[in-house]
# Entry
Amino acid sequence: DSGVTQTPKHLITATGQRVTLRCSPRSGDLSVYWYQQSLDQGLQFLIQYYNGEERAKGNILERFSAQQFPDLHSELNLSSLELGDSALYFCASSLGQGPYNEQFFGPGTRLTVL
Amino acid sequence: KNQVEQSPQSLIILEGKNCTLQCNYTVSPFSNLRWYKQDTGRGPVSLTIMTFSENTKSNGRYTATLDADTKQSSLHITASQLSDSASYICVVYYGGATNKLIFGTGTLLAVQP
# Structure
């Protein structure tokens, strides 16, 4: 158990809908990262937050947005869902914000868009 | 173009045997390289983190090497166990403090009794 929690574990929804994925980092960690893992593209970095502020952006679509709250939990919002958004979404956390900090991954949320 | 390539794509070995997984990258400027183990349906777990100046780093039966000149890394697994069956992913960080990273597509390892 990494100490990172994600809810829900599974999510099934329809195209065009909007969903929110939630992540609670390990106690004491200030950075939160979001990743998408699909069968055809592997793991892709989406976005990083550090202590409430956006720190780095990867291949995140404009339909997706994220935020980190004062209690350091984070939410990833996915809107106007398409079939291709079906994937595993992982959250990770680390103590610091730099590239040398070890990241601890949560168990993931499996999103299925029908 | 910044890329991370892993080989082989998949590998089957017998329990107790050793194996070596490869990771070649073309990124600049290089920051660090990580190997992760990912069990099916679970989040990746970090095995090693290597910076430019490190050639070898071990974590139990896992030993990673890095050749910054040839931009190659390898992950050697010694005396494999059934629990080593997983996907092994190489991740390369680059761009200094900007936290850019590229994931390799992984090597799927199956250890058979």
In short: Chain A has no helices and eleven strands. The mean pLDDT of chain A is 94. The interface with chain B takes residues 2, 4, 42-45, 48, 55-56, 58, 88, 90, 92, 97-100, 102-108, 110 of chain A (CB under 8 Å). The first strand of chain A starts at residue 5 and ends at 7.
